[in-house]
Structures are given as structure tokens and as C-alpha cells.
């Protein structure tokens, strides 16, 4: 079976959700936008487990993850609880697709369940209601913020 994240990585910048490339990973706007700005970083090559990477690559990959988080927080400077930048959840799960990828999920002030991970939300709530033009505009803002970090 072909790995869906290898396919996504191969499409790269032609994917409408593509935001930017780091050295190790490609950054996409997540299909789920129940938390606006949710990004997914996909390792460019197929590796199943984080600990299969050399420690230097683990560190470099996480630096790319943190850079994406910084960009998300820059795009949403006042959306967090208390009016500041949002908290970010970092998740490298691999339960459904065994290809290293990181979910970088902003938790905004309107979060219905801020003390728990998002995965218990109904699918419709995870997906959110962001339409195509709003997604494209957010991708442009995130790309600009990534370029500035
Ligand atoms: Zn893969």
C-alpha cells in the first residue's frame, strides 16, 4: 500500500494546502481547521518512528516544528485564552499513518475543551467550517509569518 503522506510529500508545493518547506519537512495547513491555523509537518522521506532518526535530525525536525508554532502564534497574536497568543499542542502520533508527521495545533480562547487533546472532539468540530478562500488567505498569512521567523 502506498503511504498517503509519501504521496502528499511528493506533491509538495502543488498541494493546495502546502505552506512551505523546511530542510526536513513540508508544512501544510491541516485538513482539520476546528482550531484555525492547525498545521501538519510531514517528513519529506518515509520513516516510521521518530527514534529511527539520528538525534541531530530529531532536533532539526523539532526546530522546524517550533518554527511553525512560532508562525502560527504570530498570525494569531490575540486569540489565546487571556487575549495573548494561543497555546500550541504538539503531537507526533503515527497511530493512523505510520510516517513521521507532527500536528501543530493552536488552542484558541473559544476552545470548547481547552484542558484536553482535540482528538475526542466530533469529526465535524475537528474539521471546522473554514471555506476555500479563507484557507487560502490563512495559508498566505502563515507562509509570510514562516518566512519572517
Ligand atoms: Zn510515507
Which short descriptors sum up this protein?
34% helix; 149 residues; alpha+beta; single chain; HIT family, subunit A; globular; five-stranded antiparallel sheet; binds zinc ion; 17% strand
Quaternary state of the chains:
single chain
Q: Under the CATH scheme, which class?
A: Alpha Beta
Count of discrete alpha- or pi-helical segments spanning 4 or more residues: 4
Major sheet description: 5 strands, antiparallel
Which spans of ≥5 residues are poorly predicted at pLDDT below 50? none
Helix content: 25-40%
Specify the structural class.
alpha+beta
Folded structure, characterized:
This protein is α+β, with helices and mostly antiparallel strands. It has a five-stranded antiparallel beta sheet with strand order 1-2-3-5-4, with helices on both faces. The chain has one domain: HIT family, subunit A (2-Layer Sandwich), CATH 3.30.428. Strand 1 and strand 2 form a beta hairpin. Helices cover 34% and strands 17% of the residues. Zinc ion (ZN) binds next to helix 1.
Helices, strands, pairings?
Blueprint: H1 4-11, E1 18-21, E2 25-29, E3 39-43, H2 55-75, E4 87-91, E5 101-107, H3 123-127, H4 132-148
Antiparallel strand pairs: 1-2, 2-3, 3-5, 4-5
Helix pairs in contact: 2-4
Bound molecules: zinc ion.
Describe, in short, the structure shown.
With 149 residues, the chain is α+β, with helices and mostly antiparallel strands.
Amino acid at each position: 500500500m502506498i503511504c498517503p503522506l509519501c504521496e502528499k510529500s511528493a506533491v509538495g508545493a502543488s498541494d493546495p494546502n502546502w505552506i512551505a518547506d523546511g530542510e526536513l519537512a513540508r508544512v501544510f495547513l491541516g485538513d482539520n481547521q476546528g482550531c484555525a491555523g492547525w498545521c501538519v509537518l510531514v517528513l519529506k522521506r518515509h520513516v516510521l518512528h521518530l527514534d529511527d532518526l539520528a538525534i541531530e535530525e530529531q532536533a532539526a525536525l523539532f526546530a522546524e516544528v517550533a518554527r511553525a508554532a512560532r508562525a502560527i502564534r504570530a498570525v494569531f497574536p490575540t486569540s489565546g485564552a487571556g487575549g495573548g497568543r494561543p497555546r500550541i499542542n504538539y503531537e507526533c502520533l503515527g497511530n493512523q499513518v505510520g510516517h513521521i508527521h507532527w500536528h501543530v495545533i493552536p488552542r484558541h480562547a473559544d476552545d470548547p475543551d481547552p484542558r484536553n487533546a482535540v482528538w475526542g472532539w466530533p469529526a465535524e468540530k475537528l474539521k471546522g467550517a473554514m471555506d476555500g478562500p479563507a484557507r487560502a488567505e490563512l495559508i498566505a498569512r502563515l507562509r509570510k509569518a514562516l518566512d519572517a521567523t
